[in-house]
Amino acid sequence: MPHNYLEQVRQPEQSVNPLFRHLGIEVVELDADRAVLRLPVKPELIQGAGNAAGGVLATLLDETMAHAVLSGNQPGQLTSTVDMNVSFLRPVKSGDTLLCEATVTKRGSRILFTEATATTKNVAVAKATATFIML
Questions:
Q1: What span, in angstroms and rounded, lies between the C-alpha atoms of 6 and 28?
Q2: CA 68, 71, 75: angle at the middle one, nearest 5?
Q3: Helix or strand or coil: residue 108?
Q4: Are residues 119 and 98 in contact, defined by beta-carbon separation less than 8 angstroms?
Q5: Of 120, 128, 58, residue with least CA distance to 91
Protein backbone atom coordinates (compact mmCIF):
# COMPACT_ATOMS: atom_id res chain seq x y z
CA MET A 1 0.00 0.00 0.00
CA PRO A 2 1.44 3.40 -0.93
CA HIS A 3 2.54 5.65 1.93
CA ASN A 4 -0.10 8.27 1.09
CA TYR A 5 -2.83 5.78 0.12
CA LEU A 6 -5.60 7.52 2.12
CA GLU A 7 -4.84 10.83 0.37
CA GLN A 8 -4.73 9.22 -3.07
CA VAL A 9 -7.90 7.11 -2.72
CA ARG A 10 -9.93 10.28 -2.05
CA GLN A 11 -9.12 11.72 -5.48
CA PRO A 12 -11.95 11.57 -8.07
CA GLU A 13 -9.94 9.70 -10.73
CA GLN A 14 -7.79 7.69 -8.30
CA SER A 15 -5.87 4.65 -9.51
CA VAL A 16 -4.50 3.42 -6.18
CA ASN A 17 -7.55 1.17 -5.54
CA PRO A 18 -8.50 -0.76 -8.70
CA LEU A 19 -11.53 -2.35 -7.00
CA PHE A 20 -13.03 1.07 -6.26
CA ARG A 21 -12.50 2.15 -9.88
CA HIS A 22 -14.03 -1.07 -11.23
CA LEU A 23 -17.15 -0.95 -9.05
CA GLY A 24 -17.49 2.85 -9.04
CA ILE A 25 -16.97 3.32 -5.28
CA GLU A 26 -16.24 6.89 -4.21
CA VAL A 27 -14.77 8.09 -0.92
CA VAL A 28 -17.09 10.63 0.74
CA GLU A 29 -15.37 10.98 4.16
CA LEU A 30 -12.41 9.50 5.99
CA ASP A 31 -11.88 10.42 9.63
CA ALA A 32 -10.05 8.57 12.39
CA ASP A 33 -11.99 5.31 12.91
CA ARG A 34 -14.80 6.38 10.55
CA ALA A 35 -15.42 6.14 6.81
CA VAL A 36 -18.23 6.93 4.40
CA LEU A 37 -18.22 5.50 0.87
CA ARG A 38 -20.72 5.95 -1.98
CA LEU A 39 -21.63 3.45 -4.70
CA PRO A 40 -23.95 4.36 -7.57
CA VAL A 41 -25.62 1.08 -8.53
CA LYS A 42 -25.08 0.59 -12.26
CA PRO A 43 -26.73 -2.17 -14.34
CA GLU A 44 -23.53 -4.26 -14.28
CA LEU A 45 -23.97 -4.78 -10.50
CA ILE A 46 -27.46 -6.31 -10.85
CA GLN A 47 -28.02 -10.08 -10.58
CA GLY A 48 -30.64 -12.18 -12.39
CA ALA A 49 -33.56 -11.29 -10.10
CA GLY A 50 -33.09 -7.57 -10.84
CA ASN A 51 -31.44 -6.51 -7.58
CA ALA A 52 -27.89 -5.51 -6.69
CA ALA A 53 -25.89 -8.65 -5.96
CA GLY A 54 -25.45 -9.39 -2.26
CA GLY A 55 -21.72 -9.81 -2.81
CA VAL A 56 -21.52 -6.23 -4.08
CA LEU A 57 -23.21 -4.95 -0.92
CA ALA A 58 -20.95 -7.15 1.24
CA THR A 59 -17.89 -5.77 -0.60
CA LEU A 60 -19.04 -2.19 -0.02
CA LEU A 61 -19.64 -2.88 3.69
CA ASP A 62 -16.26 -4.61 4.09
CA GLU A 63 -14.35 -1.90 2.24
CA THR A 64 -16.03 0.86 4.25
CA MET A 65 -15.17 -0.86 7.53
CA ALA A 66 -11.60 -1.50 6.32
CA HIS A 67 -11.17 2.17 5.46
CA ALA A 68 -12.54 3.21 8.87
CA VAL A 69 -9.83 0.98 10.38
CA LEU A 70 -7.11 2.29 8.05
CA SER A 71 -8.02 5.90 8.80
CA GLY A 72 -7.30 5.33 12.50
CA ASN A 73 -4.15 3.25 12.06
CA GLN A 74 -0.66 4.57 12.71
CA PRO A 75 1.58 4.85 9.62
CA GLY A 76 2.74 1.40 8.54
CA GLN A 77 0.08 -0.50 10.51
CA LEU A 78 -1.69 -3.07 8.35
CA THR A 79 -4.89 -4.95 9.13
CA SER A 80 -7.03 -7.67 7.61
CA THR A 81 -10.66 -8.72 7.96
CA VAL A 82 -10.93 -12.00 9.88
CA ASP A 83 -14.70 -12.23 10.32
CA MET A 84 -17.73 -10.43 8.88
CA ASN A 85 -21.47 -10.83 9.44
CA VAL A 86 -23.90 -9.22 6.98
CA SER A 87 -27.66 -8.73 7.22
CA PHE A 88 -29.44 -7.82 3.98
CA LEU A 89 -32.52 -5.78 4.90
CA ARG A 90 -34.02 -4.58 1.60
CA PRO A 91 -33.41 -5.05 -2.13
CA VAL A 92 -31.36 -2.47 -4.02
CA LYS A 93 -32.19 -1.58 -7.64
CA SER A 94 -30.16 -0.30 -10.56
CA GLY A 95 -30.03 3.50 -10.41
CA ASP A 96 -30.05 3.58 -6.60
CA THR A 97 -27.08 5.17 -4.87
CA LEU A 98 -25.70 3.40 -1.83
CA LEU A 99 -24.14 5.39 0.98
CA CYS A 100 -22.22 3.28 3.48
CA GLU A 101 -20.95 4.53 6.85
CA ALA A 102 -18.64 2.52 9.09
CA THR A 103 -17.06 3.08 12.49
CA VAL A 104 -14.53 1.29 14.62
CA THR A 105 -16.44 0.41 17.79
CA LYS A 106 -13.42 -0.94 19.71
CA ARG A 107 -9.74 -0.68 18.88
CA GLY A 108 -7.69 -3.19 20.85
CA SER A 109 -3.94 -3.72 20.58
CA ARG A 110 -4.39 -6.54 18.00
CA ILE A 111 -8.14 -6.94 17.41
CA LEU A 112 -10.53 -4.25 16.12
CA PHE A 113 -14.32 -4.36 16.00
CA THR A 114 -16.32 -2.44 13.41
CA GLU A 115 -19.87 -1.90 12.22
CA ALA A 116 -21.36 -0.47 9.03
CA THR A 117 -24.73 0.43 7.56
CA ALA A 118 -25.50 0.86 3.86
CA THR A 119 -28.45 3.06 2.97
CA THR A 120 -30.25 4.29 -0.10
CA LYS A 121 -32.74 7.16 0.06
CA ASN A 122 -32.04 7.33 3.83
CA VAL A 123 -33.31 3.76 4.34
CA ALA A 124 -31.00 1.02 5.65
CA VAL A 125 -30.59 -1.79 3.10
CA ALA A 126 -27.74 -3.77 4.71
CA LYS A 127 -25.80 -3.85 7.98
CA ALA A 128 -22.56 -5.57 8.92
CA THR A 129 -20.17 -6.12 11.75
CA ALA A 130 -16.58 -7.27 11.28
CA THR A 131 -13.49 -8.11 13.23
CA PHE A 132 -10.06 -7.04 11.96
CA ILE A 133 -6.63 -8.13 13.11
CA MET A 134 -3.54 -5.95 13.28
CA LEU A 135 -0.85 -7.64 11.17
A1: 12
A2: 145
A3: coil
A4: yes
A5: 120
